[in-house]
């Protein structure tokens, strides 16, 4: 694979993306300038980091995606990690205060992933500095102790996980559509199953992407692929065709980044290189 060149796959089952014109540069800003040309809703998906030695998709999003979105005029970001409450519930009060002052409240800190806490804080601080507002799109605040704060949630309690998925799908969808209805340029950041436009069999209940596409066809799915995070098993969840998934490592660039079209014309993946391979 040629180093430092942005590759764009047009054929969904192509396993060796063609090289773009020489004036293209392999930058995230260039990619997002292309994808955001018609002001779509942009649904970014990421894989959660499970080992501290792995690179962080959240850090990459903060460093590379947020500045590019600001440049394109996207100033409203919906995230899954903050619960959705009523106007006067503590989490919503804190989010309004954060968007105004950049000060994180107690409840906000409670819901920042512990493995990636520093990078989530970086994401929030970067967003505030860029003038990007943070909006909740997670579980219901009123029943948070039955879902994400359930004592067995991290161990995969089936009922808690089921409720959490249902609520994230409903709340993220409602928040995104509401902001779009206010003529906002809106983008979202969720786990990579929630934003699927063409969900895998048996996983449609975890995705709000398809629902949003039915309400507003001007929407794009963009998954962030950090090889170390996908290597063991999560590559199976990437929105690739069956033929692409077999050879998914072929899309990993030696340096720079690589843009691939996935299972549908509105599905894209950005691949980053291995950290130390």
What can you see in these coordinates?
The protein has 9 helices and 7 strands, in the order αβαβαααβαβαβααββ. With 277 residues, it is an alpha/beta fold. It has a single domain, classed as Rossmann fold. A hairpin with a 5-residue loop joins β6 (258-261) and β7. It is globular and about 50 Å long. The two termini are 14 Å apart.
Task: Give a short synopsis of this structure.
By secondary structure, the protein is α/β, with parallel strands linked by helices. The protein is built from nine helices and seven strands; from the N terminus they run αβαβαααβαβαβααββ.
Q: How would a textbook summarize the main sheet?
A: 7 strands, mixed
Q: What strand order characterises the main sheet? A: 3-2-4-1-5-7-6
What overall form do the CA principal axes indicate? globular
Series of secondary-structure elements, N-terminal to C-terminal: HEHEHHHEHEHEHHEE
- The total domain count is 1
Helix-and-strand structural type: alpha/beta
